[in-house]
Amino acid sequence: MRRKIIAGNWKMNKTCAETVEFIEELVPLIVGRGDVEAVICPPFTALYSARQGLFDTDIELCAQDVFWKERGAYTGQVAPGMLVELGCKYCLVGHSETRGRFGVPEPDFDEAILRHFGDTDESVNRKAKAVLAAGITPIICVGETIAEHRAGNTHSVVRGQVSAALAGIGASDVGGLVLAYEPVWAIGTGEVCDASEADRVCGLIRATVGELFGAAAADSVCVQYGGSVKPDNAVDLLSKPNIDGALVGGASLKATDFAAIVAASTQR
């Protein structure tokens, strides 16, 4: 059985001091849960503080993004080796927000501004390869917008993103990584992705991996669901056969809520 992985993406939240306080509260709430892997994804500025707080715990550290070069004149970018030095086991790659794909666009984000969030299928692939080469496991995010969902393009969009992200990666590496389904159409729009639909699309992701890399890779890859995961829907989502964990957003900012989702992953 695949081990559940629950990752909390803090996005642009929490200072270093708030990170230390959060970890002090979280650790006793999830101690001894060796059947599930808990992961936190602080902003870059808080990664060192988080690493210090996580010593001698089973909680793993994840970066929110990366650049694919090891060094150079790339102002504002962070290299894979820098994340290794900080003790990151995981790194988010191709999150919907870094792709500029928001459920509800910010009112002052026009097309020119959205180009700031510049991830493409090619850059996602380069980032995934770079972190794998550095010994970090990518959590590769895929998912369709509300327009794509309403047009019935879920399969083509998700399959296309999975295929592009994994291009040129060997089957043995694919089997050890994490793919996260984010239905962008259900984030802040009032639309709901119920557990059966989430499971169906996570199954599609696993099937796509199987078609590309074989049954062994498909069986061992971890497929998370990420889209308004909360304590009150976590048991239903995490009990589905194709959902191996969760990429949690807002609910990961409160230690008791995140701990409840971690606990939900072991309930049936």
Strand and helix map with partners:
Blueprint: E1 4-9, H1 16-30, E2 36-41, H2 47-54, E3 60-63, H3 80-85, E4 90-93, H4 111-114, H5 121-133, E5 137-142, H6 146-150, H7 154-165, H8 171-174, E6 178-181, H9 195-213, H10 215-220, E7 222-225, H11 231-238, E8 245-248, H12 255-264
Parallel strand pairs: 1-2, 1-8, 2-3, 3-4, 4-5, 5-6, 6-7
Helix pairs in contact: 1-2, 1-12, 7-9, 9-11, 11-12
Shape, per Cα inertia axes: globular
End-to-end separation in angstroms reads: 14 Å
Strands of the widest sheet, in order across it, are: 7-6-5-4-3-2-1-8
CATH architecture: Alpha-Beta Barrel
CATH-assigned homologous superfamily: Aldolase class I
Rg (CA only): 17 Å
Q: Would you give the CATH topology?
A: TIM Barrel
Q: Strand portion, in percent?
A: 5-15%
The DSSP helix count reads 12
CATH class: Alpha Beta
Assembly status: single chain
Helix-strand pattern: EHEHEHEHHEHHHEHHEHEH
Please indicate the count of domains.
Answer: 1
Helix and strand composition category: alpha/beta
Mean pLDDT level: 95
Number of strands: 8
Q: Biggest sheet, open or closed, and with what strands and sense?
A: 8 strands, parallel
Low-confidence stretches: none
The helix fraction, in percent, is 40-55%
